[in-house]
Design a protein that fits this description.
By secondary structure, this protein is mainly α. The protein is built from eight helices and two strands; from the N terminus they run E-H-H-E-H-H-H-H-H-H. It has a two-stranded antiparallel ribbon with strand order 1-2. The radius of gyration is 20 Å and the shape is flat.
Length: 132
C-alpha cells in the first residue's frame, strides 16, 4: 500500500502575506491562482523580477510599513496611515518625522522594553526554581 502525498496549496492572499507583499500589486496570474508550498519556496529562494520590485519599491502591506517605520500596525492606524505605502512614501515619512510617528516609536520602544523585562523575569523564574 503506497500513500499518496497531496500537495499543500494556499490562497494567493496567504502566499502574499508570507512573501510580505501587497496582494493587489501582484501580477494577475498570482492573484487568480493557488500557490503550492513548493511554488512558495521557489518564490522565496529565487524571487522573480516582479517580486523583487515589489519588495524594494512597494506598495507595501501594513505589517511591512509598520516594521519599516518601527511602529505597530495599531500605531499606523492611530497616525492615520491605513493604505499601503511605497518605499518612497515611507522614506518621506521618516524624513518628515511627524509627531504621531515620534509618539508611536516611543510607545513601541516601551512595549519592547516591557516584553524584554517580562521575558527576563520568566527566565529567572524557570531557572531559579519555585521561590514564592
Amino acid at each position: 500500500m503506497t500513500s499518496q502525498q497531496t500537495t499543500q496549496t494556499m490562497k494567493p492572499a496567504t502566499a502574499a502575506k508570507k512573501l510580505g507583499v501587497y496582494l493587489p500589486a501582484t501580477p494577475a496570474d498570482f492573484q487568480e491562482g493557488v500557490v503550492s508550498r513548493g511554488e512558495l519556496n521557489a518564490l522565496q529562494s529565487d524571487p522573480p523580477e516582479w517580486l523583487r520590485d515589489l519588495r524594494r519599491d512597494g506598495p507595501h502591506p501594513r505589517p511591512v510599513v509598520a516594521a519599516k517605520l518601527g511602529v505597530s500596525i495599531a500605531g499606523l492606524a492611530r497616525g492615520g496611515v491605513t493604505d499601503p505605502l511605497t518605499t518612497e512614501q515611507i522614506d518621506a515619512l521618516k524624513e518628515e518625522f511627524p509627531s504621531w510617528l515620534r509618539r508611536e516609536r516611543a510607545t513601541q520602544a516601551e512595549v519592547r522594553k516591557e516584553a524584554a523585562r517580562v521575558k527576563e523575569k520568566n527566565a529567572e523564574r524557570e531557572t531559579g526554581g519555585s521561590g514564592s
